[in-house]
Each structure stands twice: as structure tokens, then as C-alpha cells.
Automatic annotation (TrEMBL):
GO molecular function, one term: endonuclease activity
Naturally occurring in which organism (per UniProt): Elysia marginata
Keyword Hydrolase: yes
Keywords recorded for this protein, A-Z: Endonuclease, Hydrolase, Nuclease
Taxonomic superkingdom: Eukaryota
Protein's name according to its UniProt entry: Endonuclease-reverse transcriptase
Length: 112
């Protein structure tokens, strides 16, 4: 944000919000895109390993499910953001690092 303020030469005494500066530069905040990209990178690292994290993330743990509405899984959020139809398609794509990086770079951000 500071670089937009610097480009527009907004003094620190001016009472402009960050949203006003973004409107002047005609850009949007990309915080959610940054978060989703980092989540996707993390999921890619976990899926390439065989460990406890992989078991938990894919939901292959034994035991009873808790009562009530199930929480949204990290995989569901990443697949909706990347635009893939099924979780299994995204999981099979993690083994090829180059294609996974391309998917992350070209993700449209459809999900919330």
C-alpha cells in the first residue's frame, strides 16, 4: 500500500483511507489471492509427502465424526479457488510440480 501512496504523493498528514488510495490507482487488494496461493503451495507440499499431515488433509483418519455441520476442508477451498471440479483431480496434479505451479499461477480465484 505504501508504494501507491508514494506514487500518488499522498502526504502522511492527509486523511485518506487505503480504500480511497486503491480507488485512485484503480487496483484491488489481493490479500485473498495471496492467502489462497500460499494455501495451495502448502497443500502441494503436504500431498507430495506420505505422513500424518497427508492423512489428516485427505480425511483418511479412522474414528467417529463429530456432530453437527462438517467444517470446510482446506482441499475444498483450494479446489474451488483453482477451478477444478474434483478434489482427486487436484491431488493427482500435485505430484507434477511444474503443472502444480502453473495451476497456482493461472488460478482464476473463483472461490471465496
Amino acid at each position: 500500500m505504501w508504494f501507491f501512496r508514494r506514487m500518488l504523493r499522498v502526504p502522511w498528514t492527509a486523511r485518506k483511507t487505503n480504500e480511497e488510495v486503491l480507488k485512485e490507482t484503480e487496483t484491488t487488494s489481493s490479500l485473498m489471492n495471496r492467502i489462497r496461493r500460499r494455501q495451495a503451495k502448502f497443500v502441494g507440499q503436504i500431498m507430495r509427502r506420505d505422513g500424518l499431515e497427508n492423512l489428516i488433509t485427505t480425511g483418511r483418519m479412522e474414528g467417529k465424526k463429530s456432530r453437527g455441520r462438517q467444517r470446510e476442508k482446506m482441499l475444498d477451498g483450494v479446489t474451488s479457488w483453482m477451478g477444478t471440479k474434483r478434489v482427486t483431480d487436484a491431488l493427482s496434479e500435485t505430484w507434477d510440480r511444474e503443472s502444480w505451479k502453473d495451476m497456482i499461477a493461472n488460478a482464476k480465484g473463483q472461490g471465496t
